[in-house]
Amino acid sequence: MNLKENNASLEGTRIIISGGGIGGVSAALALAQKGAAVELFEKSAEFREVGAGLQIGPHGWRMLEQWGVLDIAVNAGYLPKAIQFRDAVSGDDLLRLSFDEDFERHYGGRYLVIHRSDLLSILVDAARDAGAQLLNNVKVVDAATEHEGDCVKVKAEIKDQHGLRSVEAEVLLAFDGIHSTLRKKFISDQPVPSGYVAYRGTSSLAEDKGMSELEDVLGYIGPDCHFIQYPLRCGELLNQVGVFRSKNYFDAIDNGAVPEEWGTNKELSVAYKHCHQSVQSRVDYLWKDRWWKMSDREPLDNWKKGRIILLGDAAHPPLQYLASGAVMAMEDAACIADYAADYVAENGEVNWDHILDEVQAERIPRCTRIQTTGRFWGDLWHESGRARAIRNELFRAVSGTGWYKYADWLWRYDHRERAYVKNPDLGKMPEELKDIVGS
Amino acid sequence: MNLKENNASLEGTRIIISGGGIGGVSAALALAQKGAAVELFEKSAEFREVGAGLQIGPHGWRMLEQWGVLDIAVNAGYLPKAIQFRDAVSGDDLLRLSFDEDFERHYGGRYLVIHRSDLLSILVDAARDAGAQLLNNVKVVDAATEHEGDCVKVKAEIKDQHGLRSVEAEVLLAFDGIHSTLRKKFISDQPVPSGYVAYRGTSSLAEDKGMSELEDVLGYIGPDCHFIQYPLRCGELLNQVGVFRSKNYFDAIDNGAVPEEWGTNKELSVAYKHCHQSVQSRVDYLWKDRWWKMSDREPLDNWKKGRIILLGDAAHPPLQYLASGAVMAMEDAACIADYAADYVAENGEVNWDHILDEVQAERIPRCTRIQTTGRFWGDLWHESGRARAIRNELFRAVSGTGWYKYADWLWRYDHRERAYVKNPDLGKMPEELKDIVGS
Fold this sequence. Notes:
Two copies of one chain form a homodimer.
Chain A: E1 14-18, H1 22-33, E2 37-41, E3 53-56, H2 58-66, H3 70-76, E4 82-87, E5 93-98, H4 101-107, E6 112-115, H5 116-129, E7 133-135, E8 139-148, E9 151-160, E10 163-169, E11 171-174, E12 192-204, E13 217-222, E14 225-232, E15 237-245, H6 247-254, H7 265-271, H8 277-280, E16 292-296, E17 304-305, E18 308-310, H9 325-347, H10 352-381, H11 385-397, H12 404-411, H13 419-422, H14 434-438
Parallel strand pairs in A: 1-2, 1-11, 2-7, 4-13, 11-18
Antiparallel strand pairs in A: 3-6, 4-5, 8-9, 9-10, 12-15, 12-16, 13-14, 14-15, 17-18
Organism (chains A, B): Corynebacterium poyangense
Protein name (chains A, B): 3-hydroxybenzoate 6-hydroxylase
GO molecular function (chains A, B): FAD binding; monooxygenase activity
């Protein structure tokens, strides 16, 4: 398989990528397809993703298509028939959005769910086929932009089993995740804990009497918790995610303490007691040996320092509620490759200062909007009392294609339109939602 | 004008009505049209209604039509083009429901607004034309059902300028209002204060530069307050109602005290400070010499004691949020007249025990539903914070005919279908709204 494009316009351009998650590898693929000489450094011994299922909305679907890996991803994943929301307490149906022909026509893509490690493998193989160098056991520990006369380059310190050494490139993409090393060069901030914890689990779907008919992405939403279920791997596996508010976390915070341990199995054992039996009965299927404390970071208004740019979770880790964290990183990857190639096509040469400026002009407002909306979206899922009942009625009122109006900004996005470059205000929360976020 | 029906099936039946408000006079009209000998006693010196504008939804429209007073009521009132809700803080449009041909087809009637005293005058004239005796300065102070052999009658003590005397009839309808004297024979309950107070006012519309284009019923809803505006008297008058939460009331309650005075002008002067200028600027137009402390009562599960039945506000005073208090009393009036006539048509004689049982079997669940939903509806208008923003989005989502599904139970009601007799559960709040009411 040779995925390199005929129009290999970045031929000869040297690019370093720090981090071999979905975002970094996607960038390696997208840029190698444009002809760039890509070196990707991943500190782990192998390319793997923690977690289980991953949702790829139509905004991600179109990039998989563009990169030529859609068919193989679809074959490894699962195409749900719809997304459904139910009230976690009553079990009542609230909303169902069908991923049918109308959806595909409207969004230019379908909705795919796939095992994180399967998608990563597919992207790694494709990036290598396109000519990118992907190296394990190498960590980028530092980087700086250097000027030598008219020549600007980025020099990165990398560390592997042989020790430290330097590598040079025209640009460095820091896709090194929410705990990014390179972000520290920009700001000394910390992840913002949401106080919610996620448990995940996969189990055999075929033998699961209660669930074997499941064909949808099913989300139960309720006070202080939610629970997501969908098939994976052609329907062989059931993927489940239980997310709940940690009382231990908030109790400690309220007492002015830094919470020691939170989201433990003990908390899990009571987290769904107020929920419908169809949720409670599924808690046993979650893995108990590992849990994820959900955090994001405050949006950052600059991702670029010389020839270093933060991208993916290093730049804009969101909460998970819009199921778009991985797609955002893929959008970053597609955006930088396309904007660079567009620039070369127009000007006959590469100009990274200009390209990185354009990338962040597009991507910062887009990702800020997803980060802030993600927080709001989580709050909306976890409402209790009167707000919960009104939320339920709203969901019922817009069930079906009535939902499109809330999803269009997210799912119809195409970085090639440069919509946020043209109008950065698109990155702001809509006026009518500000009260929700602000209060 | 002779409004007596040809099918005067209640000929010779003697009926006493206590209270000459819209409900009592409607009952006098409806029963006199069926041929009954109606005596109505009103303690005041004249038939008049306190307050100003009154909204008559299509559920009331059809009764005015049935009683032959629709045209004269429409000529005295105003037919708004639509009902609109706006957010009281931002001033933003939330919802608009047009009273157009589709509305009229769907609900079998239009939406009328009319001055309370104009409607009462029209009903008084029509009731007298139909042969009812309507007497002022007479108060029904007590009543009891008496059995003499097979003969059952109700004996009422009435008091006028000459002192006390007794009158007899086959049945007594207690339409004596929220502070009903006769309700005390059933239960020793008290009105339930909502802690909200209403200011009203009418002013000349034509000279009112900011408002002269108004053709709709316009409601601003916001945290702890709302503000209603609509034209009256063929558009000559502007009717305004400002309702707000009295801090004095709730502060006193929180301190375990019985609030002395609440809802004063001083409270009014700050009640809309958080609202949009288009609301704040209208407060000056409200009457300051009088205000109404809004109360309802708990639903009662029996309205009938021998031959005495509580109806109208004496039986089921609602909060004003569904704008149906007067129509509920008109429904009671139409219901008792029609059920009595139906019984005679079927059985050749009147049987008041049976008829009153059927009336309350129909009316109690219907009115209970309006009372409980009215409380919920007020809470929904006055939401703040996140619940307000979700409510706004819900209103936007169902703007237009999407609203029908919430109004059908209220506005498509026809007592002749005996829907609540057949299914008393219709009187319960829908399952999905219980959480709102309960919390």
